[in-house]
């Protein structure tokens, strides 16, 4: 079903009472963000992740280290949520969700996620390029491109790389979404779910014929903003194409890592291919079959969405810092203010001295 214009007030957060209307980016800001894009980096990153990475395998730990190191290099705070579970075929497996925060002290969180494990197949090595190496690469590429552009204010960006999304044997409530189920449960107890404004989940991205539909009624109006942004990027010529990927059409929502979060009332935008790639769960889901024009287009729209969201956030208030931060963090946050005060004092002293000289 094609949707008309949704005019509801855009709200965020679990209880849905927090109203948020980000300020639209100017054409100059859009151009600047688009210029930060580096297709070479995206391709390189997909190649690094698009290897067999079944939980507990050497490829899995290689990719896990790569994701962690990439974000630590950008000075993000990276943590693991580690737990062990009995699974079919593989026995006891230790899973690692990767959680990276740009601004760990932010009161509110914009969360983007994808899964980094690959599905186990006995008969062949499965690379899972679109499932979901490309999604992970898009998140890392976004972190690199926006490095230096994201401000530390009251809304922080968080990237979550889920482990164990895939069923090991046959999809069921118990054999699937291992990482997402664990993390949502832990975060509910810790109160972190209450801080999540919105959760964008990426999956099955990278095929040439990709389109996204608006799958969750609660976030239709947020999905609509993605449609508008893509439209603006095409009309201004920043995107050199006429083909839209974000379609304001409803569809049935496939089970994925967002389920344990949506069940707990976290607002979710599920960005998954409306038609699964033709090589879904087949040996042909390899990096060589990734369409980078489509992938770049998704990346650009997402960067615009994230920048618009974060740039409109209320400015950082120091009392959020003081509760759980170390001295270095406090110094970093107060340094501009201290330097400003020192500068002012020096100017006043200089003026006073000059007065006496006259
Ligand atoms: Zn899959």
UniProtKB/TrEMBL annotation:
Entry-linked InterPro entries: Peptidase_M28 (IPR007484), QC/QCL (IPR040234)
Segments forming a coiled coil: none
EC number: 2.3.2.5
Top enzyme class: transferase
Peptidase M28 domain: residues covered: 97-305
Keyword annotations: Acyltransferase, Membrane, Transferase, Transmembrane, Transmembrane helix
Gene Ontology biological process: defense response to Gram-negative bacterium
Taxonomic superkingdom: Eukaryota
PANTHER family: GLUTAMINYL-PEPTIDE CYCLOTRANSFERASE, GLUTAMINYL-PEPTIDE CYCLOTRANSFERASE-RELATED
Name of the protein in its database record: glutaminyl-peptide cyclotransferase
């Amino acid at each position: 079903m094609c949707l008309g214009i949704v005019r509801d007030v855009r709200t965020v957060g679990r209880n849905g009472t927090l109203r948020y209307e980000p300020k639209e980016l100017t054409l100059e800001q859009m151009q600047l963000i688009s210029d930060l894009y580096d297709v070479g980096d995206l391709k390189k990153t997909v190649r690094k992740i698009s290897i067999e990475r079944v939980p507990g395998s050497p490829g899995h730990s290689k990719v896990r280290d790569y994701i962690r190191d990439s974000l630590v290099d950008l000075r993000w705070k990276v943590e693991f949520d580690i737990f062990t579970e009995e699974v079919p075929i593989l026995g006891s497996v230790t899973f690692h969700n990767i959680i990276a925060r740009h601004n760990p002290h932010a009161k509110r969180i914009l969360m983007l996620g994808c899964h980094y494990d690959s599905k186990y197949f006995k008969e062949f090595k499965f690379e899972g390029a679109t499932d979901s190496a490309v999604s992970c690469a898009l998140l890392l590429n976004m972190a690199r491109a926006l490095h230096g552009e994201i401000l530390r204010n009251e809304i922080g960006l968080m990237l979550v790389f889920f482990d164990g999304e895939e069923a090991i044997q046959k999809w069921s409530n118990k054999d699937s979404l291992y990482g997402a189920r664990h993390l949502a449960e832990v975060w509910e107890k810790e109160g972190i779910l209450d801080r999540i404004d919105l959760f964008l989940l990426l999956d099955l991205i990278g095929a040439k014929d990709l389109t996204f539909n608006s799958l969750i009624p609660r976030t239709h109006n947020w999905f609509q903003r993605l449609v508008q942004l893509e439209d603006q990027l095409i009309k201004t010529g920043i995107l050199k194409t006429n083909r839209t990927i974000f379609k304001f059409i409803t569809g049935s929502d496939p089970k994925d890592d967002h389920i344990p979060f949506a069940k707990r009332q976290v607002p979710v935008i599920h960005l998954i291919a409306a038609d699964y790639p033709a090589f879904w769960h087949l040996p042909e889901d390899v990096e060589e079959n990734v369409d980078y024009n489509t992938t770049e287009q998704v990346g650009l729209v997402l960067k615009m969405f994230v920048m618009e969201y974060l740039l409109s956030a209320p400015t950082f208030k120091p009392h959020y810092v003081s509760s759980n931060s170390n001295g270095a963090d406090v110094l970093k946050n107060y340094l501009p203010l201290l330097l400003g005060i020192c500068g002012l004092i020096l100017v006043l002293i200089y003026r006073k001295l000059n007065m006496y000289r006259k």
